[in-house]
Design a protein that fits this description.
Blueprint (H helix, E strand, L loop, with lengths): L1 E6 L6 H10 L4 E3 H9 L4 H7 L4 E2 L2 E2 L1 H10 L3 H26 L4 E5 L14 E6 L2 H9 L6 H9 L4 H7 L2 E4 L4 H15 L6 H6 L10
Parallel strand pairs: 1-5, 1-6, 2-5, 6-7
Antiparallel strand pairs: 3-4
Helix pairs in contact: 1-9, 2-5
Length: 213
């Protein structure tokens, strides 16, 4: 099974790209959605212990957590240290299920793919990109977004140019959705029949190599 890492900075159009992969019958794991579910309960006690006052009614209050992190940007690293292992466990279960079903390809949609070193655990990396002006316009249209909050969030991410330079494939999403879909279609066509090594090397067992004795 070939594992495709799908990434890109905020507001670049990853969700649109992911939907196109799904339209081709390729299973896609959404890391952001996994985090949202974890915030809804399983991870809440851990996050409350690390960031007192960040939860409400047994769930992470994203507004409160954002306010705490705005005052303490170093807290992002602590938060990621709590969340990433939990997400990785879900990724492992997802990929093992896809392999059992005989899927020739599977996609891990991970916003911080390069930043977390997850690019070492996939076979191919697809980066979705757009001009900075387009990215900022899209993000500023999101509810509750401010220029200050946006700057903090973008500062955590690798520069777009570096992501594109490290990618196997780059999808420019600044045009129409149909144009983005056509680019994804060409990538999928080029990957047909290609074997991957990442699943056997990292994901096929119950724990990653660094944790096995």
């Amino acid at each position: 099974m070939l594992i495709i890492g799908l990434t890109g900075s905020m507001g670049m159009g990853k969700s649109t790209a992911a939907e196109r992969f799904r339209a081709h019958g390729i299973p896609v794991f959404d890391a952001d959605a996994a985090v949202h579910c974890l915030y809804g309960g399983p991870a809440a006690p851990l996050i409350e212990a690390a960031f007192p006052g960040s939860t409400r009614d047994g769930k992470v209050d994203r507004t409160r957590l954002s306010e705490i992190l705005a005052r303490d940007p170093a807290g992002f690293a602590r938060l990621e240290a709590l969340i990433h292992p939990l997400v990785e466990s879900e990724e492992r279960a997802f990929l093992q299920d896809a392999a059992r079903r005989g899927a020739p390809m599977a996609v891990l949609e991970i916003p911080l793919l390069f930043e977390t070193g997850a690019d070492a655990r996939v076979d191919v990396v697809v980066v979705v990109t757009a001009p900075e002006a387009v990215q900022r316009r899209r993000l500023m249209e999101r509810p509750g977004m401010t220029a200050e909050k946006l700057d903090v969030l973008l500062a955590r991410q690798m520069p777009d140019a570096e992501k594109c330079a490290r990618a196997d494939f780059v999808v420019d999403s600044s045009g129409t959705i149909a144009e983005s879909h056509a680019r994804i279609d060409r990538i999928i066509a080029s990957l047909q029949g290609r074997d991957g090594e990442a699943f056997a090397r990292y994901w096929s067992t119950s724990a990653p190599p660094r944790e096995r004795s």
